[in-house]
Amino acid sequence: MMRLFRAVRDRLARAALRLFVEKTSPRLHLMKVGSEACGWTVPTSLITEGSVCYCVGAGEDISFDLALIERCGCPVYGFDPTPQAKLHVERVAKNNPKYHFAGIGLWTADVPMRFYAPRNPAHVSHSITNLQHTTNFFVADCKRLSSLMRSLGHNHIDLLKLDVEGAEYGVLESILADELRVGVICVEFDQPAPLRRTWKMIAALNESGYRAVYAERWNWTFVHERMM
């Protein structure tokens, strides 16, 4: 009974959130880029050869990152501290001059953090917030986005993808607090999470000028109103 209740609750919540998207979506050229499983729907008309794109959370599928390079001609900066992700990037993008990868994490401060393993050892994604309540972890250096941008010499980001296993709330809050110039944000609101927290974050983004233009389950795409 509890499982059924949660399923109905989640379905109603997603329907309500999608209604929010439908009411606020501008007329943008939206296209899914990357693989079916790990691609993202983005306004490709806003991404050009001179755009700066950060993709945080590589895992073992960087098809989105590489498709951005191929389709838009822009450089992409990828970040992920997990060993499997580093090996995957080495295999598939070692010789791509426009793909720049660093094995670090994104967080709210420049500090080393524990990344907790998933319950299924076949899965690659580790979580700072320990989404799956496990005990195994590794430690990796993390940076606040504003600090990372300074180190790379960027004063803005045209597109930011966040697939960071529960760390997205803190990272998004830091973006808003630092008033960073980010044009497009693609974010997965990882579950389980209190729905009120997800809704509160979406509302905070909206209040800061980010308009939701697409949602597929918990993967959301926002565009700042200055880009429209």
Topology:
Layout: H1 2-24, E1 30-33, E2 40-43, E3 53-56, H2 63-72, E4 76-79, H3 83-93, E5 99-102, E6 105-107, E7 112-116, E8 137-144, H4 145-152, E9 157-162, H5 168-177, E10 182-188, H6 195-207, E11 210-216, E12 219-224
Parallel strand pairs: 3-4, 3-9, 4-5, 6-8, 9-10
Antiparallel strand pairs: 1-2, 7-8, 10-12, 11-12
Describe this structure in words.
The protein has 228 residues and is an alpha/beta fold. It has one domain (2-110, 138-227): 3-Layer(aba) Sandwich (Rossmann fold). Helices cover 33% and strands 27% of the residues. The chain contains six helices and twelve strands. The chain has helices spanning 2-24, 63-72, 83-93, 145-152, 168-177, 195-207; strands at residues 30-33, 40-43, 53-56, 76-79, 99-102, 105-107, 112-116, 137-144, 157-162, 182-188, 210-216, 219-224. The strands form three sheets. Strands 5-4-3-9-10-12-11 form a seven-stranded mixed β-sheet, with helices on both faces. Strand 1 (30-33) and strand 2 form a beta hairpin. Helix 5 packs parallel to helix 6 (195-207). It is globular. The N and C termini lie far apart (45 Å). The mean pLDDT is 91.
The pLDDT mean sits at 91
- Portion in helices: 25-40%
Quickly give the CATH architecture.
3-Layer(aba) Sandwich
Q: Unreliable runs, pLDDT <50, ≥5 residues?
A: none
Question: What order do the helices and strands follow?
Answer: HEEEHEHEEEEHEHEHEE
The gyration radius over C-alpha positions equals 17 Å
> How would you sum up the major sheet?
7 strands, mixed
CATH topology: Rossmann fold
CATH class value: Alpha Beta
Q: Can you tell me the CATH superfamily?
A: Vaccinia Virus protein VP39
Strand tally is 12
- Tell me the structural class: alpha/beta
| Count of distinct structural domains | 1
N- to C-terminal separation? 45 Å
Strand content is 25-35%
Helical element count?
6
Q: Name the shape in a single word.
A: globular
